[in-house]
Amino acid sequence: MKNSSGSPSLFTGTKVHTRLTSAPAIDIRHETASHHWLYTDLALVKNHALEAGYTTRKLSSMNLAGTVCPPPATAPPSVSDRGEVHQSRFVGVEDIRNRLHEEMGYTLSTIAQENRMLRQENRSLKQRLTRARNHNELLLKLNETINGFLSITDKKELIQAITRSVCDDLDFDSAILWFADKNEQKMVPISWANVSYSMLSQLDISTERQPYPRILQEGKTLCIVDDIREQLEEANQLLQHFHSLRSVLECEVIFLLPVSTVDHIEESPDGPRAQVETSALLMVGRQNRSHLRECKNLLQQYAVSAGRSLCNVNLYDFLQENYRSYRQQAVTDGLTGLYNRRFFNQELDREIQRSYRHLLKMSLVLMDVDHFKKYNDSNGHQAGDAVLRKVADVLRSQTRVCDMECRYGGEEFAIILPETSKRQARVLAEKIRKEIEQTHFEFQDNQPGGRVTISVGVSTFPDDAVHVNELIEKADQALYRAKEGGRNSVVLAES
């Protein structure tokens, strides 16, 4: 029998059958009075399932071979185009639908579980990012606070800023700055923030009682969490002390941090030297217990910076108190107390420029102690130093306030005379020469002529020179002529 397509039919009878080939149409419906079957080739079912998006793993998990029903007795084997016989199998439609529903439910359940895990991990990352952002903001505030300390030069203001900033800028709840009193062997509060003074005055902290020796001597930082509510036994003094600290700071978390400061400043040949030691303690309270490690690291940096700022302020105060002394030493000759050569060079140049601007005269006087080498060799250097000091006293007593007396070098002296003509300078030089000649010096009888004398050379701006070096050279030439002329005389520079 042939069907309408002209190809031979595999079966005859009232039931309609179509030969199975590799064509896409694979469903053959076989109906009986009590069954509705899906007649198909198992290999073709897998191929079409793969095209629909199912993976081989999922097809294996469905176990199609184990769920298909055996074919009815009337279902014959299929024959390929080449005459090969394939055993056909019948699969229930409801079974496939149930398996697909189960597989879809399993897949959706897996996706939902993975989605929950991703949401949980995302929340954790957001929390870590928030903590990192908050910590970064605190570090920026810390940097701004430390930079603010550098601009403070008043010690009292800095001490108050240390306790105030740790609460206002770094978001802690309370703070106390203590200094160690070595004589009384106890800690003394010098600054506090958000703390009642009446409560603070009740604390008596000895530097000999633990944990304070460990903090001050070893530089240890302590973090104390006190959450004890009931009354403590009197025997446990350490816990009682921590409990009293919590009552004062009104916080359950307390940080104890060492602060290094300047103990004292001493002079040295290279300048002032500061002796630094841990003599202060910063006590900080915090109500929130979270992120204690980050808080401890932050406060350690803060305490180190606060200590350095205190050292800088102490050194600044020392330099301010001794500025005039240091400045005077920098421009003063140590033996005679007169201005030194450095000051002479600076002031002479400045005075010439001032005289040039205002069309003024000024004079320079150079003088030398006669036969000073002989006096030194005969009587010793200490006697020679005494002569130089006495000559310097005469110069100071005979000059004006505006005049500048300098030790030019060795036994040579110089005087800068602002707004002074050559004639006026000669009168002053002669007055000084006579005064020294009449002054009594020890061992003066051993000198030629039986006394100590000086030779003087005078030059004037702008009569003799208009430049510093020329003015000095003119006065030096006049001094040389005074020595060549018999000493103990005043010679003017030649114009």
List the helices and strands and how they pair.
Elements: E1 28-31, E2 36-40, H1 42-51, H2 56-62, H3 64-67, E3 78-79, E4 85-86, E5 89-91, H4 93-150, H5 155-168, E6 174-181, E7 186-193, H6 197-200, H7 212-218, E8 222-225, H8 237-249, E9 253-266, E10 273-286, H9 292-321, H10 323-331, H11 341-358, E11 362-369, H12 372-379, H13 381-398, E12 404-409, E13 412-417, H14 422-438, E14 454-461, H15 468-484, E15 490-492
Parallel strand pairs: 14-15
Antiparallel strand pairs: 1-2, 2-5, 3-4, 6-7, 6-10, 8-9, 9-10, 11-13, 11-14, 12-13
Q: Mind explaining what this structure looks like?
A:
With 495 residues, this protein is an alpha+beta fold. 47% of the residues lie in helices and 19% in strands. It contains 15 helices and 15 strands. The protein has helices spanning 42-51, 56-62, 64-67, 93-150, 155-168, 197-200, 212-218, 237-249, 292-321, 323-331, 341-358, 372-379, 381-398, 422-438, 468-484; strands at residues 28-31, 36-40, 78-79, 85-86, 89-91, 174-181, 186-193, 222-225, 253-266, 273-286, 362-369, 404-409, 412-417, 454-461, 490-492. Strands 7-6-10-9-8 form a five-stranded antiparallel sheet, sandwiched between helices. Strand 3 and strand 4 form a beta hairpin.
| Main β sheet profile | 5 strands, antiparallel
How large is the count of helical segments?
15
Low-confidence stretches: 1-42, 54-75, 78-82, 85-89
Note the gap between the termini: 154 Å
Q: Shape, please?
A: elongated
What is the radius of gyration computed over CA atoms, rounded to a whole number of angstroms? 53 Å
The proportion of residues forming helix, as a percent range, comes to: 40-55%
Q: How many extended strands?
A: 15
